From TrEMBL:
Name of protein: Aldehyde dehydrogenase domain-containing protein
Stretches assigned to the Aldehyde dehydrogenase domain: 1-78
Domain of life: Eukaryota
GO molecular-function term, one example from the UniProt record: aldehyde dehydrogenase (NAD+) activity
Keywords for this protein: Oxidoreductase
Length: 97
């Protein structure tokens, strides 16, 4: 993976070393991914990921909430165009979504 992914693909990497995870995230070109997903049963690991990383959005033990809530802004961190909030929608959402 060389670039950010925008699509129905969610790469999953399994780690046993939290330091490797934090180093990987901080070594990204922006150092701040648009989205970060943490799956862990140990609450200390979850808290460590929250405290030591920065991302546009962090989901814990979930990978749907970023797309399920249509009222959340689309954004990351920094000056990238994707870090701007979505303009308000003027259309009515259908329940078939």
């Amino acid at each position: 993976m060389q670039d950010e992914l925008f699509g129905p693909i969610l790469p999953v990497c399994r780690y046993s070393d939290l330091e490797a995870v934090v180093s990987f995230v901080k070594a990204l070109p922006t150092g701040k991914p648009l989205a970060l997903y943490c799956f862990a049963t140990d609450s200390a690991v979850v808290e460590d990921v929250k405290r030591r990383t920065t991302s546009g959005g962090l989901c814990i033990n979930d990978c749907v909430m970023h797309i399920a809530n249509h009222d959340l802004p689309f954004g990351g961190v920094g000056a990238r165009p994707s870090s701007r909030a979505r303009p308000p929608s003027t259309s009515t959402r259908s329940s078939s979504r």
